[in-house]
Amino acid sequence: MLTKIPTGIAGLDAITDGGLPEGRTTLVVGSAGSGKTVLAAQFLLHGIERGEPALFVTFEEEPDSISDNLSSFGWDMAGHRESGALSYIHAGAQPGVEQVVVGPYDFSALMSRIESAIRRTGVKRVVLDSIGAVFTDYTERTIIRRELQRLAHAVAKMGVTALITSERDEEYGAISRFGVEQFVADDVIILRNVLEREQVRRTIQVLKFRGTTHRKGEFPFTISPDAGVVVLPVTGRTRSESSSDERTVSGNPVLDEMCGGGFLRDSVILVSGATGTGKTLTSTAFLNAGAAAGQRSLLFGYEESREQLFRNARGWGYDFEALEREGSLKVICEYPEVQSLEDHLLVMRTAIHEYQPTRVAIDSLSALENISSMRSFRQFMMGITAVLKERQITGLMTATTPSLLGGESITVSHISTLTDSIILLRYVELYGEVKRGMTVLKMRGSTHEKHIREIEIDGEGMHILEPFRTVEGILGGTPLRSRDDEQRLRNLFNEQ
Amino acid sequence: MNPVRIHLYLASDTSVALRVAAMVREMVDTHLGGRADVVVIDVLSEPEKAEEADVLATPTIDCVLPLPKRRLVGVPPSVQALADALVLTNVPPATPAAPSRDNA
Q1: Chain A contact set for B59 (CB, 8 A)
Q2: Which residues contact B46 (CB under 8 A, 6 or more apart)?
């Protein structure tokens, strides 16, 4: 069985099923600015942390400038270099020297330099960054291909795990410039950097790992200022593992009843409705119930400011200031537009790791959906759901429907399969009056009430009343009064 | 001290290395009147010297003096081609100028 060595990059070890194949050469390709060097440096630094000496062979930048650039992540490359844990080889042309190729050659000198550096400190991890630069100083492609192949082979024979980076020109074109992948590596990882809806979206994909497993497809990642590359894995596994029957209060006793005794503890609940139907109130009540019971509750607000949210809560009789002071509630408000969805996910993940909440509310998903493409929104949803499931957190998310009376929002239709429960809030026009209605549309793993109930909102929060008995078509947005005799019949039975 | 100094980076005593070394020596004799120092560096036993000079390929022929430094990579097709590529053909054979150069 082939062993893998961890890269130490959060998420990448998950999608590679353990890291890079040990003793082999992995090629990391990506366009300019896609994060190749950062990823490569992290791979080395993780080795150094584990006491494995590392070698950084740079074909372009000077070692000093690499150290400088990476120090912005808080990485002490220069310090590791001094301590001897990290060696550098500058494999660029000598500055200011004119070079002319007059005949056939090989790269024995470079190979000898690398081998000697590996032997000198007992190097276990090597990075060659970025190999495409060789092709600018040396133009004989057949020679270079043969020599790079020989180099990769020599490194592998020394029992060292190598990571080679190379440029590519298009995000969805040839794998790498000069076809490097065809001769240096059995294992290829692609980094992409795509502009989508005016937001930079980064993804990572393991294209191939010869003879060993990895997860397929593109996974979003970000480059965080203090952690470097962070891959946000979509864990499909936790879904089946988490199926607790434990119940937790929703914040409204009648809603608990409608859900068959409360929300399921590790479930994700979607609350969907038009503006003003009580979504924020539902999430406020949900958080308050948790916090009041001493469970840590975390709110991510993307529609309103902290002040506004606190004022709303106060208006319904909930004291968020006090709860936050006690430490049982944390409110994080951000403008959706300040960063990409991947970055939002990273912020949420970090906050969840740090605060360790029992319940999390997101108000609203629609605000986040507006800044992203469908694909990245779906990936975001899978990412955040995975984070919540992993930690068995009860999650409540709100989504705004565009039309006032009924209709399905885009958000809902895209993520309904990812959520365990769906609660709909609707306006209902009845006898010339606008009323509000609520129903539990779906609840995975539990029975639930099927009625559409009337709700009222006042200074004490939400009151869930009796089911509407004389109207149909509420969900479709065109309520009709039931025919009279039918209504009379129903009333006979219901009002017993 | 000779006006020309050549550093020759080779991979041990391969046939290619021997051939290139012979070509360089011949060029020094035929084109430079023997007035050049040639230093042969075996990159396999002295990788640190290749390191210092940023040498990747073998053979690498560095003309260190006179300045500016020039670098040739590969096995030259002929001694003449080697001399041409180093642009040294006119330097030492201009004998009248040589003494003053030496004095300077």
Answers
A1: 105
A2: none
Confidence of residue A225 (pLDDT cuts 50, 70, 90): confident
Query: Which stretch of A418-427, A429-438, B88-97 has the lowest confidence by average pLDDT?
Result: B88-97
Read off the pLDDT of each residue in B20-26 and give the average, rounded to a whole number. Answer: 92
Alpha helices in A204-292 (DSSP H): 238-241, 253-258, 279-292
How is A426-467 classified by DSSP, letter by letter?
A: EEEEETTEEEEEEEEEEETTS----PPEEEEEETTEEEEEEE
ipTM for this model = 0.83
Task: State the Cα–Cα distance between residues B8 and A105, nearest whole angstrom.
Answer: 13
Residues A353-403 pLDDT 10s: 899 999 999 998 989 888 888 778 888 888 888 888 888 899 999 998 876
Q: Is the pLDDT of residue A46 over 80?
A: yes
Beta-carbon contacts of residue A286 (< 8 Å; ≥ 6 apart): A250, A251, A297, A359, A361, A396
As a whole number of angstroms, the distance between CA B67 and CA A95 comes to 14
Residue A420 pLDDT: 87
Q: Tell me which chain A residues have a C-beta less than 8 angstroms from the C-beta of B54.
A: 90-94
Identify the three-state secondary structure at position A9: coil
DSSP string, A259-273: TTSSEETT-EEEEEE
Q: Is A303 a catalytic residue?
A: yes
Phi/psi at A348 (5° precision)? -65, -45
The conformational region for residue A401 under phi > 0 = left, psi -120 to 50 = alpha, else beta, is beta
The conformational region for residue A261 under phi > 0 = left, psi -120 to 50 = alpha, else beta, is left
| β-sheet bridge partners, residue A85 | none
Predicted model pTM: 0.66
Question: Is A22 assigned a catalytic role?
Answer: no
Give the three-state DSSP class for A19: coil
B69 → closest Cβ in A92, A97, A109: A97
Q: Give the length of chain B.
A: 104
